[in-house]
Amino acid sequence: MSVNDLGPEWIALRLVSVVLGLVVVILGVRVAVTRRFPTAWVRIARLTASQRSQPVRRGGFSALLGTGLLVQQAPFLIPVPHAVGQALFAVALLLVVTAAGWFALLRH
Question: CB-side exposure of 60: number of CA atoms within 13 Å?
Answer without folding.
Answer: 17
